[in-house]
Amino acid sequence: MSKNNDDSNVLIYMLAGVGLGAIIGAAAGLLFAPKAGTELREDLTGKLKELKGKTEDWISEQRVKRAVDSAAEELGV
């Protein structure tokens, strides 16, 4: 099981890095876009709310996966 945990940790860190890169890229794109301040703030607010929702969904999925893995391990599956 140790190898499987190591692989999942690597995957989680890789996905976190990709996600962070996407966030930084999106923020840079928005900040350098030729828009009015109020329009830019509205766009940022919308994107942050969307990102928050996606992050909450991802976290809840991870919790469910860990609970299932833990239960399977306890049952010896």
Question: Can you describe what's shown?
Answer:
The longest helix is centred in the C-terminal third of the chain and has 39 residues, at 37-75. The protein has helices at residues 2-31, 37-75. Helix content is 90%, strand content 0%. It is built from 2 helices and no strands. It has one domain (2-75). The protein is mainly alpha-helical and 77 residues long.
Q: Tell me the number of structural domains.
A: 1
Percent of residues in beta strands: under 5%
The parts where pLDDT drops under 50 for at least 5 residues are: none
| H/E element order | HH
The residue fraction in helices comes out at over 70%
Name the shape in a single word: elongated
Instruction: Please provide the count of β strands.
Output: 0
List the helices and strands and how they pair.
Layout: H1 2-31, H2 37-75
List keywords for this structure.
single chain; 77 residues; mainly alpha; 2 helices; elongated
Briefly say what this structure is.
This protein has 77 residues and is mostly helical.
